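Q: Please design a sequence for this.
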């Protein structure tokens, strides 16, 4: 692995996007969403996806100069037509509007339509949490998930994030897919030659497998409970936004990159001040999490953590030592950068 400083990665991606004609207001969220994911150790949704996004941009799937418009609004809700731009930018614009609504009436919920892959949901949840709000973000995804016992996938590893402000540290952040693992994560594991668990996925015939090269479908977390949660997120993200749902959701890979995704997301913000003094709430939240962290463990080497703790630890290390980049990814990034500077 080669270590990159945050500034160097931001500059490289910024140059490439600018050369591709991506508007600065859009590019900043693509760069921000990818680098934040990589900083927090979520490499499956970080910088490794940048070459794919550039290819999709050049092929016409992603619109780098969109006409973003809100098509429907109420006192606490809105619908954003993303005009097929980067999901990172669409989600960020939606969160800004959700926070504005929450400042007025206590809560804001925005559905996004005609979007693309938006990366790590934490990027959007944390935006709200850093403004003393409880942030929520969700998306549906390519149908890769099998119903327990089925042999063909019908739902995506639909993802959600809930982020909550805390005193004295970065927010609590639960960011999860509804599958046992995502294909982007599986790709990294496969490239590293690491073993996988039989609970992660199945081969093309629906048979559970521990061979990462043979995995064609994913299993939901917790069996039917994870499948049900994936359905809920599909309903929220696809039905409310008017986008396809279930098996009709578009594919990220394996189809022409000229094909638009038509993805839907939903983001929300709840103003803590509408219920409790923010400083009181944040202090209680910190004490609550610290109490859970302090619980006794049967394994002397075990450490109790709350959602977001592993990412906070990873970020501290990577801000100090740099973001690790595999040689293959480095070569692709350097090739894109060379083209941008030509």
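A: Design:
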């Amino acid at each position: 692995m080669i270590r990159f400083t945050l500034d160097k990665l931001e500059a490289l991606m910024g140059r490439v996007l600018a050369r591709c004609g991506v508007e600065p207001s859009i590019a900043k969220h693509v760069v921000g969403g990818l680098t934040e994911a990589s900083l927090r150790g979520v490499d499956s949704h970080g910088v490794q996806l940048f070459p794919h996004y550039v290819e999709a941009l050049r092929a016409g799937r992603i619109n780098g100069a969109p006409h973003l418009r809100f098509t429907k609004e109420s006192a606490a809700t809105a619908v954003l037509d993303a005009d097929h731009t980067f999901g990172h930018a669409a989600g960020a614009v939606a969160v800004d509007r959700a926070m504005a609504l929450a400042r007025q009436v206590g809560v804001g919920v925005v559905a996004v339509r005609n979007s693309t892959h938006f990366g790590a949901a934490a990027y959007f949840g944390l935006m709200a949490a850093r403004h003393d709000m409880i942030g929520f973000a969700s998306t549906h995804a390519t149908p890769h998930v099998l119903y327990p016992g089925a042999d063909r996938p019908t739902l995506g590893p639909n993802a959600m994030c809930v982020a909550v402000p805390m005193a004295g540290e970065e927010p609590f952040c639960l960011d999860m897919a509804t599958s046992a693992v995502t294909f982007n994560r599986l790709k990294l594991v496969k490239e590293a030659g690491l073993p996988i668990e039989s609970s992660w996925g199945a081969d093309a015939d629906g048979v559970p497998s521990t061979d990462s090269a043979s995995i064609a479908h994913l299993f939901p977390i917790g069996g039917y409970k994870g499948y049900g949660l994936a359905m809920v997120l599909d309903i929220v993200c696809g039905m409310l936004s008017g986008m396809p749902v279930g098996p009709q959701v578009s594919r990220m890979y394996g189809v022409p990159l000229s094909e638009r995704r038509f993805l839907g997301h939903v983001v929300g913000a709840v103003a803590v001040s509408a219920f409790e003094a923010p400083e009181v709430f944040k202090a209680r939240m910190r004490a609550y999490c610290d109490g859970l962290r302090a619980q006794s463990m049967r394994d002397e080497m075990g450490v109790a953590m709350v959602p977001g703790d592993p990412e906070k630890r990873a970020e501290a290390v990577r801000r100090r030592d740099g973001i690790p980049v595999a040689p293959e990814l480095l070569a692709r990034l350097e090739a894109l950068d060379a083209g941008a500077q030509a």
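Q: Thanks. Anything notable?
A: The chain has a mean pLDDT of 94. Residues 40 and 310 are 8 Å apart (CA to CA).
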